[in-house]
Amino acid sequence: SDIVAEIGQAVLYLQREGPRLGLDPTRLVIAGHSAGAQFVHRLFFFLPDARAARVITANAGAYMLPDFKTAHPYGLGGSGVTPADLKTALTRPVLVLLGEADIDPNHRPMPRTPEANAQGLHRFSRGLNYFRLATEQTVRLGVPFGWKIATVPGVAHSNTLMAPAAAAHFFAQK
Q: By C-alpha distance, which of 37, 28, 33 is closest to 160?
């Protein structure tokens, strides 16, 4: 998609030009919440050369599942992502961050297509399913898994209340 490509180009620019701008490209952190999480989690599938020290995807409404059996945009089928791109994406330092109370199946901006609902009835279950499928793929493909999952108790769909957990991951020592 165009916006994912634009974000990817910005990441590649920062990697290339960061030192000239006084930035350390090895410390680049990319995060997104809700719709932003939908862009962020797709970024490294579509642009395997884009690198970040940490990636956080928080409370996405729906996911591009890491399998080729599910059609794009809900999976990799027909997306142009290659098996090599999938392997690379699964090794990235990604945190899937989920609010444990983000369980309203009728939350207004959440996608409710049949394909999205097949991932789970609310954001929390969709995020758990996404992480589970990614874990299964790493085992099947025999690649090291770079992803982690964390949940935030008592938090629903609130970027403000998710931010402290995201910040803790941002500033964690490697």
A: 33
pTM: predicted TM-score of the whole model, two decimal places? 0.88
Q: Rounded to an integer, what distance in angstroms lies between the CA atom of residue 123 and that of residue 129? A: 10
Query: Residue 168 in 3-state DSSP?
Result: helix
- What does the DSSP assignment read for 80-133? S--HHHHHHHHHS-EEEEEETT---TT-TTS--SHHHHTT-SSHHHHHHHHHHH
Averaged confidence pLDDT in the chain: 90
Cα–Cα distance measured from residue 68 to residue 81, given in angstroms and rounded to the nearest whole number: 9
Q: Can you read off the two tokens belonging to residue 149? A: 């999952």
Is 70 exceeded by the pLDDT of residue 173?
no
| Spatial contact of 100 and 153, defined as CB atoms under 8 Å apart | yes
Residue with tokens 């030009």: 17
Taking each helix axis from N to C terminus, what angle separates 83-91 and 123-141, rounded to the nearest 10 degrees?
Answer: 110
